[in-house]
Amino acid sequence: MSGLVECVPNVSEGRRPDVVRGLADVVSAVPGIRLLDLTSDADHNRSVITFAGDAEAVESAALALVAAAYGAIDMRTHIGEHPRLGAVDVVPFVPLSGSTMEDCVAIAKRVGGAVAKAHDVPVYYYAKAATRPERVRLPDIRKPQYEGLQALMDTTHGPDDGPARVHPTAGAIVVGARPPLIAFNIELDTADVKLAKRIAKEIRESSGGLTAVQAMGFELTDPVRAQVSMNLLDHSVTSLATVWREVEARANAAGVKVLRGELIGLAPLDAMLDVARESLRLDGLVRTQIIEGHFIR
Amino acid sequence: MSGLVECVPNVSEGRRPDVVRGLADVVSAVPGIRLLDLTSDADHNRSVITFAGDAEAVESAALALVAAAYGAIDMRTHIGEHPRLGAVDVVPFVPLSGSTMEDCVAIAKRVGGAVAKAHDVPVYYYAKAATRPERVRLPDIRKPQYEGLQALMDTTHGPDDGPARVHPTAGAIVVGARPPLIAFNIELDTADVKLAKRIAKEIRESSGGLTAVQAMGFELTDPVRAQVSMNLLDHSVTSLATVWREVEARANAAGVKVLRGELIGLAPLDAMLDVARESLRLDGLVRTQIIEGHFIR
User: Fold this and answer.
1) Distance between CA A268 and CA A98 in Å, rounded?
2) Of A202, A180, A183, A181, nearest to A248 (Cα)?
């Protein structure tokens, strides 16, 4: 099994479907790459392209995508609600089966260096590829936005690679490495959305809850039900089984049962094996015990 | 994702490691095949070769193995404790991700037909490939053993394919299709092996327990602990989560905690996803939501 890597570039185009589809096609055309998801948001004027493959193929596909996006998107005319610094705004690399975070940091640095050189675009490294603490979080890097970036770049916000000069049409790019993100919801057997909001507040990291967990309480309709909607930013730190247990305990304490879980989009194999590992206390479980694990290329 | 199939042939040779290794090499040499396990037992004078790959590759590898085994094993001189009918005693095909039981039944029939034709060997179909109820279970087919087979074949035990004449050196062959077998143990926090034996008896199918479950109670040493050792013969009928729950409930009722689970050898991806499906009540979970599932070839 060679190392699989996921890449989730966010591009500043969400209103021209043909352009977005063209970018996805550029990615899919790289041998060994699977396009896993393509989501556009017109209000944000932004698209998220999710693909995966062997490390080498993913690196090639990311560079091909950047070149194609720079040919199609002009930041001078870009308007959208979502904060952004460039035509290709952020490019995270994510380790999957057979690859490590270190591999992904190395890929991020190589891709960043190549983009700087080929396109004369300033590069910031974020998350696990960050070069300093104040550049770990994306919002901190993106704060000045495209329009205010040059002024800040001239003083405190110099790039990690490439020129200290915002590219007029491409802007700047943020490249990094992070764990896979898992979107996971739990539906409660109640219409009491206040309970879901309270549980969400108790378990999310931002209010002192579980590490690497974002959570919100929502009301589902038809039938009306309360839902705790979560992002697990690092399932190796806080697992699916852990958030299930924590949400269930709080709901039960309020006399409410949990109805079901829901996985939104994709999750890595390791996160699912962790569930089996915890539920059946299979401390010694390794990925090579899964027959299909021998056929992941 | 194309269909993966596992094949677990049992051959009547467990005392000549070079011969067994040679048979495994014949299998491994088929493009796309992964040898997953090779276990020999000298007392039984028998080896189990586990391999998997695309359906077509597995079919080729099975036929190549049969030809090689027939060239190396002579049933006229075979002695061993384990019941057997032939040099290649039993060849089960097992559906994995992307293939179905129907696919495996079809493979079993094609392989059986080809072996009958190429080697002039009588063929019995068993398990899901059985042609009549009394040939579903392997022990029923294997009862006369190699030595008594011709006498029975002349009366009631005619083969499903090939000649009604036991091949002098190859004997007969049993070919079939079955679900994956999962070997799973649960360790109890007690030295009371009687409790493990009682739980095993209560949960195994043969004494009225859970469908498709075999179970025994054992004593582990260093430290001394009781263990319930199980084979799950069809995890889609009785799952890992179910046996865990049933064993845990009975242990707890006796005031004993369960310490840990242990997966022996390999398990299919679907069995692990079932654990996540049950633990997190992910009714809608599908294999394509596992990122690596897109890279199983």
Assistant:
1) 12
2) A202
Contacts of A290 in chain B (CB under 8 A): 266-269, 272
* Total number of domains in chain A: 2
Residues 145-174 of A with CB under 8 A from B: none
Question: Residue B55: exposed, middle, or buried by beta-carbon count in 10 A (0-12, 13-18, 19+)?
Answer: buried
CA atoms within 13 A of residue B126's CA, in its CB half-sphere: 18
Beta-carbon contacts of residue A2 (< 8 Å; ≥ 6 apart): A54, A55, A98, A297
Annotation says B235 is catalytic: no
pLDDT, tens only, A136-152: 999 999 999 999 999 99
In this structure, what is the dihedral angle of CA atoms A48, A130, A268, A29, given to the nearest 10 degrees? 50
The answer to whether position B296 is within a domain reads no
CATH of the domain at A215: 3.30.70.670
Quick check: B268 and B180 in contact, CB under 8 A? yes
What string of H, E and C letters represents the secondary structure of A124-153? EEEECCCCCHHHCCHHHHHCCHHHHHHHHH
Instruction: Give the total residue count for chain B.
Output: 297
Q: Which 3 state secondary structure label does DSSP give B78?
A: coil
pLDDT for B297 equals 74
Token duo for residue A181? 């993100």
- The DSSP bridge partners found for residue B212 are none
Distance of CA B35 to the CA centre of its chain: 15
d(CA B144, CA A194): 70
Residues B46, B190, single domain; the answer is no
Report whether A159 contacts A124 (CB < 8 A): yes
CA B290, A174, A112 angle in degrees (round to 5)?
90
Q: Which of A177, A207, A240 is the last residue of a domain?
A: A177
Residues B21 and B66 in one domain: yes
Asked if A260 and B283 touch (Cβ cutoff 8 Å), the reply is: yes
Q: What ipTM score was computed for the predicted complex, to two decimals?
A: 0.90
What is the C-alpha to C-alpha distance for residues A125 and A113, in angstroms, rounded to an integer?
10
Q: Domain boundary at A143, A177, A211, which?
A: A177
Task: Give yes or no for a contact between B170 and B88, defined as CB atoms under 8 angstroms apart.
Answer: yes
The token duo for B127 is 């398990």
Nearest CA-CA partner of B244 in B194, B182, B178:
B182
pLDDT (tens digit per residue) in A100-135: 999 999 999 999 999 999 999 999 999 999 999 999
Report d(CA B73, CA A60) in Å as an integer.
52
The pLDDT value recorded for residue A284 is 86
Residue of B nearest to A259 (CA): B281
Q: Nearest-CA distance from B243 to chain A in Å?
A: 10
B180 at A interface, C-beta within 8 A: yes
Q: Do B96 and A291 touch (CB under 8 A)?
A: yes
Nearest CA in chain A to B34: A294
Residue A183: how many other CB atoms lie within 10 Å? 15
Token pair 């409790």: residue:
B195
Domain range spanning residue A145?
4-177
For chain B, residues with pLDDT lower than 50 are 1
